[in-house]
Design brief:
This protein is of the alpha/beta class. The chain contains 5 helices and 17 strands. The strands form 4 sheets. Strands 1, 2, 3, 4, 5, 8 and 17 form a 7-stranded mixed sheet that branches. Strands 9-10-11-12-15-16 form a 6-stranded mixed sheet, with helices on one face. A two-stranded antiparallel sheet has the order 6-7. Helix 1 packs parallel to helix 2.
């Protein structure tokens, strides 16, 4: 059995405060025996809309250095859901997920492919593409005990990505997120359960929660979902951790029962005229 934890945070505009809080919750998860600990999107910083702190290259980012130290200190695999690191284009960043091994070394990284350019009707307009460069490569990371597919937040609405990760061997897919309150209430649980069912994978989704700088509200409810689509753990609406034990043999069992990953067929679309 593999014990994993999702850290649920209300990250704010102070990187140091967020780091202190993160380590406290990671320590708790490690103390409960978690081998893999995961954190939400924008773990180290959520600022007011329009405000932008200094942009760091990855190897100089204080959050990256802190995460490496935490992983090494507690001898865990640590997935930082995402962090903003400098892109080659001046003034822009990548929204990057980083996986650290128990020695504090970066084992894998993934840049968010799908950017959140929407107006969901919560009083804020989201335009990630104004400051973030999209990634263009899906990532599957091989750990000693599992194969991890890496995604971030808005990626959740693009099922073809999850299918591709599962076909490449992912038996766990991570969905670190900062889902808005409005979209979370409507879609969070059902989308995550759908991705688990479609791929026959465990889904682990650490989330931001509560009210952030500038009044932005996130939904919380960090989830762990089994390959049959059953919710194993739900973080609710407070900061903290949720922990679950995963039996990865269930992935093979479910995929044997419903081998839909092997049943894809090519097709064409015919747009036929309506009858008069």
């Amino acid at each position: 059995m593999l014990k994993i934890s999702c850290v649920q945070l209300t990250s704010g505009p102070d990187l140091l405060d967020n780091t202190v809080k993160l380590e406290r919750l990671v320590a708790k998860a490690a103390g409960e025996g978690a081998t893999l600990v995961t954190t939400p999107e924008n773990t180290f910083l959520i600022e007011e809309p329009g405000k932008k702190s200094g942009i760091y290259p990855q190897n100089e980012h204080p959050g990256v250095k802190a995460a490496a130290g935490i992983a090494e200190k507690y001898k865990i695999w640590l997935l930082i859901g995402s962090i903003a690191v400098a892109a080659k284009e001046e003034g822009k960043t990548y929204n990057r997920s980083l996986l650290f091994d128990p020695e504090g070394k970066i084992a894998a990284q993934y840049d968010k492919i799908h950017l959140f350019d929407v107006d969901v009707g919560d009083g804020q307009v989201y335009r990630e593409s104004a400051k973030i460069m999209p990634g263009n490569e899906a990532v599957v990371a091989t750990l000693p005990f599992a194969t991890l597919g890496m995604t971030i937040c808005y990626d959740l609405r693009f099922p073809q990505l999850y299918r591709a990760l599962a076909k490449e061997g992912a038996n766990i897919i991570a969905v670190p997120a900062a889902f808005t309150q409005v979209t979370g209430e409507a879609h969070w649980h059902v989308l995550l359960r759908a991705r688990a069912i479609e791929t026959g994978s465990f889904i682990i989704a650490p989330a931001q929660v509560g009210t952030h700088a500038g009044g932005r509200q996130t939904y919380g409810h960090s989830l762990v979902i089994d390959p049959w689509g059953r919710i194993m753990a739900d973080g609710g609406t407070e900061e903290g951790i949720v922990t679950a034990e995963l039996d990865l043999r269930e992935v093979d069992k479910i995929r044997a029962k419903l081998p839909n990953l092997k049943h894809d067929r090519g097709f064409k679309i015919s747009c036929q005229p309506q009858g008069s």
